Amino acid sequence: MAEQTAPPQSVDVGAGREKPDAAVVRDALGVGIAVGLSGFAFGVTSAGSGLTLLQTCALSLLVFTGASQFALVGALAAGGNPYTAAAGAFFLGVRNVFYGLRLSQLLSLPRALRPFAAQWVIDETTAVTLPQPTRRAARIGFTVTGLTLYVLWNLTTLVGALGAEALGDTDAWGLDAASPAVFLALLAPMLKSTTERATAALAVLLALGLLPVLPAGLPVLLSALAAPVVLFLMGRPKKAEERR
Length: 244
Description:
By secondary structure, this protein is mainly alpha-helical.
């Protein structure tokens, strides 16, 4: 891939630091393999929730965002309305749009490749790509993580869905917790500011507090209210300070 001209100052790439390609590939493979194997848990959970093999594999091929996939099948398994379950999964996946806005500046891919790259804009590729010191390293990290994870996630989804019957009661294995646990492990280091930590904490409290009283899928939707609430509360002291 040809190097692009240096990005604007706001883009934290190309600052002169170098990182060996082999090191970037090693880090990307580590994340891609570790998370990709958890597709097995999704395959088992989805099949145990009543989805067919075709439906399960289609979700991994087309949706390809683990947290949203687990949210969808979890809500359906709990007896939630399909539209509510789909809406919850959709809003959980909206974060990928914001990832894409940031990654588009870092990667600066040709227009013809952007629609294909968009399929790989997820938590894991973002976590690997953002810390890279150069555009070349960012592109390698994004590509290797995305390719490894996409292939493994879909293969293990198929294996999990096929093997669900052999496992018996899938709920007893607790496999549905695998992807959310990985998601939280990747998210935690990215919560650096007080605002980000407060938003995450409030979202968790809202989701857990509403879970026993609302239909499946709705707690995830309403937990998104944490962001505007925290921004409003954090902004009030600043406005008071400006008035002084």
